[in-house]
Amino acid sequence: MDSLMQLFYDEANEMVEGMEQVLLALESGEPDPETVNALFRYAHSFKGNSAAMGFTHLSKFTHGLESAMEALRKEQRTLTPELATLLLQAVDMIRTLLERTRTEGDVGDPTCEPLLQQINAVINGETPQPVPAPSAPMPSAPVQTAPAEPPTTQGAPQYRITYQPAPTLSAEHDPLQLLTELQEYGQVIECRFREQIPPLEQLKTDACYGSWELLYETAFEPAIVRALLELAAEGAEVRIEPVNAAPTETAQPTAAETVAAASQPSVATPPPTETPAAAAAAATAAVNAAASKGEAQSIRVSTEKIDALMNLVSEIVIAQSMLSSAQTADTDERTRAAITQMERHVRDLHERVMAIRLLPVSYLFNRFPRMVRDTAAKLGKKVNFEVEGEETELDRTLLEALSDPLTHLIRNAIDHGIEPPDERRQNGKPETGTIKLSAYQSEGRIYIEVRDDGRGINTERVRQKAIQLGWITENDHPAEETLYDFLFQPGFSTAQQVSDLSGRGVGMDVVKRNVESLGGSISVQSKRGEGTRFLLRVPLTLAIMDGLGLTVADEHYIVPLTAVVEAFQYESLQHTALFDQYEMVNVRGEFIPLVRLRQFVGLPETDHDGLIVVLEQEGEQIALLIDGIAGQQQVVLKSLEENFVRVHGFAGATILGDGRVALILDVSDLIRRGRQSAERYAAVA
Amino acid sequence: MTTITQPTETTTATEMNTDKYLVFQIGNETYGVPLLQVQEIRTYTPATRVPNAPDYVLGVINLRGNIIAVIDARTRFGLPPLPEDESTVVVVAQVSDKIFGLRLDSVSDVMDIPIDQVQPTPPIASEATQRFLSGVVQVGERVVILLNLREIFDIDALSSIAA
Fold first, then answer.
1. What is the CATH number of domain B19-158?
2. Where are the beta strands (DSSP E) in A177-309?
């Protein structure tokens, strides 16, 4: 099972358990209005998550449940025992549906509807009818059953696939991995590499001029292949043409086209020849296999335990380097060999323990493109979804906790932010709106930004709504920030109609609550007609990155390797300065502001030559003058703030292999400095 | 009932009124910090300088995976720093929720300090250093000056160090 699915199921199981606990707590105590709110939020999140995964039945059922809870909340009705029993049945139903998505794909249960009707009846004060128990998780509707069937390639249709990576081939683009993945779903019969390299003077050093042409044989739908390619290579141009007229092209267009299907061969559409009995047997086998596999694949360990482990390993690394440096010429061969061997194992251990907690945000971000596509389609909007900084690594717990808030924010951006195509055209905007999700590290924190170029927040409508809710009076004209704050209050929503997407006024307070529970904060900026930007800041408990060690005098600093463009010997000929102050460096005809690291860290300048490291962030560059480079290493980012204070200019600190602490330079701060110098330069020149 | 319990109460009272203090010498004086605030005592390892920090902040060190600041007690009190030797130590202490290290020339002892005999510091020191002191107490022959670690670390004054 891939990581996305695993995450979904982990979360789903937690939510099911949460709902159950809330309901069971009711039986032993006083009902409190927060319980209904909690159930409501669970149903809401469930709906969102399952919709994002393409599980329509699960999403539909939880939507119904959410509506019921909404009614309950509005009516201020207390939860009676009989209603609690029904709701527990609903929880069981979610479990059943979940199990089916795991084994059979997106299939429903005939008892879903009656159960919902009954819950609604009780809420509206009618007498309940007994509900049939959810049917056993066996294929009850043979038509919909999707038994486990490994992808057979024998005589399967063939496709000609042209795959042209995005012009700027980024580090996470891995054509080889893509090919390996394709191999899992079919047979790559032929693979040709084509290159269109322009003449030297037009050649860009960071562009990709190659493309691949594949002859591919698979039993899967072309849509699945497309999804697979697009997931693995965002921004790439992909063309799929059937080689021999394949009849499968039109069969079962929607259900099989899900991400889930693409990543899980077992939910593929069955060949129509299979007999029901065989299908049932296969399904049972799949259930068992999935169950036993699921147990073996992951265990949940508290992050505290891993933290303690991590700190211990850091100490071992330090002790190890002390041992290594204690070796002398007299140390005998056996001791030497043992130390070398231990060194290797310790490094391995170190890396593995670190890796346990960290995952790139792409792990989370990857689930959004599909959700955006579906949501936009449903709302008749055109949305171009961009992702940046997916390689930023984040603590797994943080990632999991950010999933709900981001789902809400992105959905809101599509629903409320991006205007319908006509309206956009009328306002002189491109028909297709853009939503950009980006992640980056700065000043020892992780920033995640959701930005849209939609209509922005209508502050007047927010004010009217607040008046209507009795939060302010007609005469109050609060500041913009105060109005934005209202958006995060429970029960606030400006959406005019309740859709199954957003607009119940529950999303934003959940977002705020979730982010704050991580010790983070959320802020919003908006401009009428131009768009809205939500900025989430979460603390950096533990993050890892590849760093480049820079030296000045006997001091050692780290810059994130991702920011490093190039390094070269500094030559005074490239240098230009105004009033000996505002310095620029000419790099192949381009002037880049110069920042001297010695000056930056308060050390005296030297006259001997140094190195220039060109750093880039968000399209801006600076040239950093240093004494030397100390090499590349993986570093664990540590907060300076936790036990000390924030130090401007530094994103945090890290512990080097020898136990010493090195400070990590904040590239955005360096760039800010460079920019100031450049602006002054421009102003004076 | 009251007559019986009274003597016992007095005894407990005197017992409860001594606190354990870690005492050390800086220059010719003996100073003490509440042992409860002290986490551990470590040998001094060179700290990594923090650019633009005040001179009494020696830098930051690694304490089992956490980054903590080390403050030089001598510099903090306006005395010339001494080169480190074998007896140089870092006392790791906790104030509020932050942990920091205080570099000392040496530590000498743990002492029971009779709290009710602590007197306010006479205003002999400069105003700047006065706030580091929380009182003086005579224990036998020795005069112990009690330190206020919170003021010595003074995280609010550092708040954020601009580069």
1. 2.40.50.180
2. 187-195, 210-217, 237-242
